[in-house]
Write a structure and sequence with these properties.
The chain folds into 2 domains: about 150 residues; about 50 residues, Roll (SH3 type barrels). The protein is built from 7 helices and 10 strands. With about 200 residues, it is of the alpha+beta class. It is globular. Helix 5 runs antiparallel to helix 6.
């Protein structure tokens, strides 16, 4: 992990003050992460340790901003429901949807997002899903602004049809059924089953 110093190089300039305000006025640690195949960001809590948010360093500015706010929403839910955070609050349930939608509102404008992202993002913000990869239109809009080397020949697992062969971590799998935020897949060599994050980037065969 790379400790956060400034968000200036990672989010759209017009959103910088808002993002830094959220960081400075909430008690979480923020880290940049090396690229991860299975997640764009995460929020973690451990007893006696300051809550931590990480975001992949290789995301384009628009995807970085959305992912950052996604994780801040997890922090806000945690702050509001500490006593029953793990038992009563679903990770991407109604509480998270409400907070994430509210955090997105100040950035839903033409000064921050290009029109091809802004329009689907406004719809997405009404009922956010666990991953932007689950919204095909928004995913395609965001992908246009990626460094081509990041996504070359790769697609989110959730976008493959059931029964499709794909390569992940240099192993050959068959895509199975969706289980909330993960997909049940079968290793074609060992025939063992694994659940893989639905938004993981894979290479279809």
């Amino acid at each position: 992990m790379i400790k956060k110093v400034s968000l200036q190089l990672y989010v759209p300039q017009a959103a910088l003050a808002y993002c830094e305000h959220l960081y400075q006025n909430n008690k979480f640690d923020f880290f940049l992460s090396r690229p991860r195949r299975t997640r764009l960001g995460d929020f973690t809590i451990k007893p006696g340790v300051t809550p931590r948010i990480t975001v992949n360093v290789n995301l384009n500015p628009y995807n970085f901003l959305i992912t950052y706010l996604h994780e801040v929403a997890h922090f806000v839910v945690y702050q509001n429901y500490k006593a029953g955070f793990k038992k009563r609050v679903a990770p991407h349930g109604i509480e998270w949807k409400r907070e994430f939608g509210a955090l997105l509102q100040p950035v839903l404008n033409e000064q921050i997002f290009p029109e091809d992202i802004l329009n689907p993002l406004r719809i997405y913000a009404l009922n956010p899903k666990a991953s932007t990869g689950a919204d095909q239109i928004l995913y395609n809009a965001l992908k246009k602004y990626d460094d081509p080397s990041v996504t070359l020949n790769k697609t989110p697992l959730i976008h493959l049809n059931e029964g499709t062969d794909f390569v992940f971590h240099n192993r050959l799998f068959v895509r199975g059924t969706v289980r909330r935020t993960r997909v049940l897949c079968t290793d074609k060599v060992s025939q063992r089953r694994y659940t893989i994050p639905a938004h993981a980037l894979v290479e279809a065969c």
